[in-house]
Amino acid sequence: MTWIDANRLKTLAVALGGALLFSLAGLPLPFLFGPMTACLIAALLKVPLRGWGVVSVAARTILGVAVGASITPEVIARLPQMTLSVAFIPAYILIIAAIGVPFFTRMCKFDPITAYYAAMPGGLQDMVIFGQLAGGDVRALSLVHATRVLIIVSVAPLVMTRMFDATLGNPIGAPAATLPPAEMALMTAAALIGWKGGERLRLFGASILGPMIVTAALSLSGVIHFRPPAEAILVAQLFIGMGIGVYYVGVTLQELRHDVLSGVAFVAILALLAAAITEIVVLAGLAHPVEAFLAFAPGGQAEMTVLAIVAGADLGFVIVHHLTRIVLVITGAPIMVRVVARRRAALGAAHPAAGGRPHDRDEGRDT
């Protein structure tokens, strides 16, 4: 089997078809929602789709460069002003854990490790990978987090346009033909160096954070002055949307009833918590409604970056809050896992038959 096989080509065709249909229908974000919807429907219809692996990861570097290019001296000067709103994030995470872990263990019957990583609002791929290393149910984690991201990415534009009167027509970038070739070359180098350098340093979310750090250095030093071209950001949207849909390949009726519905129910809980903290931040005068909503929405960093760009939101504000959330979730995970493992061992010794669902199913999807 060659690396580019029939299933990957079929997946790309489905994604492009979805983007075309959404574009012709005049629907918002056609290169994100079109591929996501088309691949989701195809996956549920048992079409043999396959993710694009390293190509999908590489597409995320474009968003890392876009964020890094938005980090200017003006943004750095405003960091002290963000301190108060950022201070809400630790409490936000603790509340999510306090509600989410019991929800998944008692209501959904997940084992404690799977419950913890299912509840934590980190990056989709990060939570699945860390959950796997800790011994969690990889398939359940994949479906719960894919459902979380799918629903939030789908609902967020409606909230922004209907409740906050935001528009999603902000230019995502200048056409490639209008950008200086030297700067595009530097952005490409920043993407590759940041991505691979981040992986060597074992940086979480290396495909986004690595390019972001390198590009931010170039931006702050005045070497680059533009975001990646519009065409590149559309490609990133295409692969992000496609990746979300592909997570549902091979889903069974039992998984739909249990894992996916568990994810849907937990998203409702997260939505209430996010709405409450967004309202508090806005009423306190710490942020405008759109920025506060995007900063505290428990979606994936890549997806929220796309929405912030098309909404013309303060990208620096949104990303600072998401980075803080992800750093706290990732760094706190090993501590929490040790605590949960000790509790599970103690319960197992007292009640040998106790425990959550077994996690011996397949290990996710090639995305």
- Gap between N and C termini, in Å? 17 Å
Helix content: over 70%
Number of domains: 1
Number of helical segments with 4 or more residues:
16
Main β-sheet, in a few words? none
Q: The CATH topology, please?
A: Na+/H+ antiporter like fold
| Elements, N to C (H/E) | HHHHHHHHHHHHHHHH
Strand runs, count: 0
Which percent range describes the beta-strand content?
Answer: under 5%
CATH architectural label: Up-down Bundle
Give the CATH class: Mainly Alpha
Radius of gyration: 20 Å
Backbone shape: globular
Helix/strand structural class: mainly alpha
Q: Assembly state here?
A: single chain
Average pLDDT confidence is 86
Low-confidence stretches: 358-367
Q: Mind explaining what this structure looks like?
A:
This protein is 72% helix and 0% strand. By secondary structure, it is mainly alpha-helical. It has a single domain, classed as Na+/H+ antiporter like fold (Up-down Bundle), CATH 1.20.1530.
Key terms:
disordered C terminus; single chain; Na+/H+ antiporter like fold; 16 helices; 72% helix; mainly alpha
